[in-house]
Amino acid sequence: MINLSVTITVIMKTTATSNENSHLLIARGKSSRLDAIRKKSGLEPKLSALEEKQNKHVMVDGLNQMTKEALQQATALIEGEINALMAAYPAGKKTTFFKIKHGADIDKVKNMSVQDIFKLLKLESKKIKHFQMVANLHLNGKTCDAE
Fold it and tell me: Does the pTM exceed 0.85?
C-alpha cells in the first residue's frame, strides 16, 4: 500500500513551486485549514515579489532627522499594535474581525494620518517624543494635504 501522506506532500511541493505566483492560489492567512496543511507538511513558501514590496516601508525624501525618527517610532508602535491585535484573532478571520472592531480594513487604516490611526487604535501619543511633527503625516511621510 502506498503511503498517501508522502504522495500528497510530494505533489504539494511540486505544485507549490511551479504555481507560486499564480493568482488562483489562496494566499497565506486566508484559510486556516490550508495554513495548517502547509505547516504540517513543512511547506513555508517564500514571499512573492508583491508581498515583499508591500512589507517594505518607504518614506518620502526631504524629511528632517527628528521627523524621520518620530515617524519611525510611530510606525513601529502602530505596526506592533496591529500585529498584537491580529495575533489575538483566529487565523482565518483576522481581517474580518479587525474590520468589524475598528470599522476599516488594515490597508485603509495604514493610509490614514498618524493622528487618526492613534485615535482609532487608542494609542498614547505621549509615547512618541515629537508627536506633533508627525500627527498630520501619513506613515510614508506624505502630508495629508498632498493627496
Answer: no
Question: Given a cut of 70, is residue 32 above it in pLDDT?
Answer: yes
**3-class SS letters over 80-140:** HHHHHHHHHCCHHHHHHHHHHHHCCCHHHHHCCCHHHHHHHHCCCHHHCCCHHHHCCECCC
Q: Are residues 61 and 24 in the same domain?
A: no
Domain that holds residue 32: 4-50
107-23-12-31 Cα dihedral, nearest 10 degrees: 40
What's the start-to-end Cα distance of the chain, in Å?
A: 64
pLDDT digits (tens, 9 = 90+) for 81-92: 998 888 888 888
Collapse the DSSP code of 29 into the 3-class scheme (helix H, G, I; strand E, B; otherwise coil) and give the result: coil
